[in-house]
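User: Thanks for the earlier help. One more: ABC-2 type transport system ATP-binding protein. Can you show the sequence and predicted structure together?

Assistant: Of course, both are below.
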Amino acid sequence: MAETIVDITGLRKVYPGKTPVIAIDDIDLHVEDREIYGLLGPNGAGKTTTISIATTRAIPTAGTVHIAGTDVGAHPAIARRVIGVVPQYNTLDRSCTIAENISFHCRYFGFSSADAKARTAELLDQFRLTDRATAYPQQLSGGLAQRVQIARAIAHRPRVLFLDEPSAGLDPQSRIAMWEAVKGLREHGITVVLTTHYMEEADALCDRLAIIDHGRILVEDTPAALKGSLGGEKIYELKLDHPQRSEALAALLRSLDGVTTVEPTDEGLRVVAHARDGLLAHIVGMASEYGLRDVATSEASLEAVFIKLTGRDLRE
Ligand SMILES: Nc1ncnc2c1ncn2[C@@H]1O[C@H](COP(=O)(O)OP(=O)(O)OP(=O)(O)O)[C@@H](O)[C@H]1O
């Protein structure tokens, strides 16, 4: 049986204040060795807080995190040796070259000068950065800088790499290159825990994922199983000329065979229905009497799973 390498139990984080914020509300999470595990959820769901606690940067209100058997709260210095972190923002040292950024990280973790040099050369090669070794961070594109951040984060050979929103701000091509780099980490024995609010990223990259909202895990499974849980339901997004006057149309749509829910959105209505021949034509026929401007259909996607669970769009 695979080893559980990240073990989060009963985790809770309340930020105190006049109105205390419950950022994490009793999360249990278990990640197996060499998995790529995703925390998918909208802004403010509690993803960054979870990663901050797991990587010793924040103290939980309750609960524990064990990484490779070490209690992170009780033994943060030991835990840091088995953890690598790429935070949400570029934290490369701008006054050092790419090679220095990596080798100084090795030295910080106790490597000899020769070992740090050898490890840096190995990582520059692994991440196809050798020709940029003497460049400075500000000379790199966002995609390359992100690859350097990942190379640096795993320089001390951690067991688990935490990536907080790894593709924020990257263009689509750099995003795909970053996904390939992350997938390659498995061969090096590294488990990955990442946060994202891009469902395409969660779908393309993760072996398993948890959908998080308001500090709670709503569901956890493989992307395929989560999409399969929709049981053939599709989502139809209707844009209307007068979204605020859509109640009569909503009532009509609810009476259609196969329709399970109809909800108002900022631009019109969202219809969730079991797909069947002719349904789209029925929906369009009814809605065109009510100023239909556009209709978009989404197949089983993680976005659709999120909408079904919360009634909201991941981007809302
Ligand atoms: N230092 C803090 N003090 C008070 N509230 C905080 C603090 N940090 C986060 N929060 C609140 O805790 C909740 C969870 O935030 P968190 O940053 O973990 O979410 P997230 O899912 O990572 O979102 P994002 O992608 O925007 O970082 C939010 O309501 C946020 O406003």
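User: Great, one quick takeaway?

Assistant: The first helix runs from residue 47 to 54.
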